[in-house]
Amino acid sequence: MWLLRTDRAELVHFNEPPPKYAILSHVWGQDEQSFQDLQVLLAECRRADRDGSGKNPRSQASAKVRACCMYAEADGYDWLWEDTCCIDKTSSAELSETINSMYTWYSSASVCYAYLADVPADDDPAAPDSAFRRSAWFGRSWTLQELIAPQDVLFLSKDWQALGNKYLWPGLLEEITGVDADVLTFLRPLSSIPISTRMRWASGRQATRIEDEAYSLMGIFQINMPTIYGEGRRAFRRLQEEIMRQTPDQTLFLWGGLLRPGVCQDCFMQVPSHLTDHQGLLADAPSDFANVPDLVPIPYEHMSRAFSSFSTNFGVQPPDTKDGSGKLMTSTTLPEFTVTSHGIRARLPVIEPVYMPTSHTSTRYALALLACAQSARNVCPYIALLLRPHPGNAPVYHVGLAMRHMHTCLASPSSISVARYTLATSISHSTTIHPETRVYWKELYITSCSSDAAFLPTPRRLSFAHSPTGRPLMQYYVIFPLHVVSRLRRAGFETDDWLPSRPHEARVLDRPHAVFAFTFSHVLAPGTERFRISVGLCPTRDDHGLWAAVDIASHMGRSDADVHHYAPHCDRPHLVWADDDSSDNAETTKRGGVGNVPETVFGDGKRKVHLSVGRSDRTFRPTNVALLIVHIELGGLVYEQLRERMVES
């Protein structure tokens, strides 16, 4: 471990961390000082010392290194660790050792300085649109462990003024990052947080190197493994395999789409080829966990009772005491997952065959019980994976059933997703039990993850529809930020669909009449408290014909088929930005902040939805492609009362 002497910025090697040292957390800039740069500087200063000039290397160091050393020295620290210059990245062995030790180093530090280069000293962090909330520091992969691990995190402004520490704002930090306040303040151990929840914390964060999406999480999951830059997304697969070997927490497998109650049978279809990458047991990236609900692992004795209740719920023969190979299974039998060349070998309680009627045929599938439950009010005693048997006699399965979203009128691949798991309350609504259906323990193989081709970056092909005037229509890539989804979830609202939160997951509006609609139902009153957000392209306008609307109802039917579907008529509010030519629309207002954000308020004093849509600052080519970021805020007496009930429960 290399550390900087704070009085001189000299590098000194330690075999073990010293008892007292400071550590820096920051977002890398363009011209950071490397280990080699600093060694050259130190050598030059030593030569100058021999000449009698007596230069202090700290005064010649980069502005960030110099300022951080001075701040730490003023706080009484002799030693400082700074990742840009305290790691010899030319040594793969040292780099791997450092990455595997980093969580320990941050947790052992006396203080962690979180330097926010984009936050002024006079900023009010709690303000709704504060620079603190929008700081790039909260969006980087590595800073998640740098927030959680240290005992003390002191946030510093861009001119090195103290803003406050994490004990001052645990609730604010939870709102920004999703990380439980009790975890940040060490009232709850990190190890008690379900795997899927910890993955969700990382789902909206970004890393410069794809591999770092996995390596930055090793400490969060107490995993050690070699680092191999160049392996791409295989790094995240290896991380999940290590987690699977070291913890029995099966929430690891519960990412992606959830099959909810009330889905009409016509929604199911054969899995199209472009979605085959979503049918493995393991995820491709942390972003796959963006919209997972609150789940908890349950004790295996509870799982055994749920297994026995299968026969009652489905009206099939009682559970077998032997698995498919004749091996005796008892109430103390434990689930098992092993990595093999054929996929993940799993031993699980299974119910099969079960049939899911589609619009043209019936799809045979199996339900595999997992030792997980919904944490919110524990509505359901168990959760099951949806498994499709691979053609042939081998016990090989893929995960998930394809669903066509009937509440969208966009006939494109983006209107189809894969439901990977379901709750007990959903199973009886959508399945057909066969006379041969039985419940038993089974050893089976589940496709582990995407094909190797999916680990290689592939550019998205762009094809443009044209307006009646012959000009290409705008292509709008629509996403919902993770903090928006988290805020709605805390208020008790869950969506009936998977919400894209990162640009590469975005839903695309690229055809006339194209519409996306997302329905949100309250978990305490799913059949009575719902609202739906619709975004679409207007067929009668040219480039910027984008409209948005919110339909609020307190007595909607449970099926999406019962919800009235709006077509994109011109009487709907159109979104207009300050740089648009068509600025005569009075139905939207411009809100300050990052970019120009059209905002519209729907509802009344009882139920109110603030809908705003902003453009990303990133530049797109070609110019008729835009990334739209949807923000939702709730108000009104009824929604406030529901929020209070969620807090009480």
Automatic annotation (TrEMBL):
Domain Heterokaryon incompatibility: 21-122
Signal peptide range: none
Source organism superkingdom: Eukaryota
InterPro entries: DUF8212 (IPR058525), HET (IPR010730)
Occurrences of domain DUF8212 (ranges): 234-376
Pfam family, one: DUF8212
PANTHER family linked: HET DOMAIN-CONTAINING PROTEIN (PTHR10622:SF10)
Name this protein carries in UniProt: Vegetative incompatibility protein HET-E-1
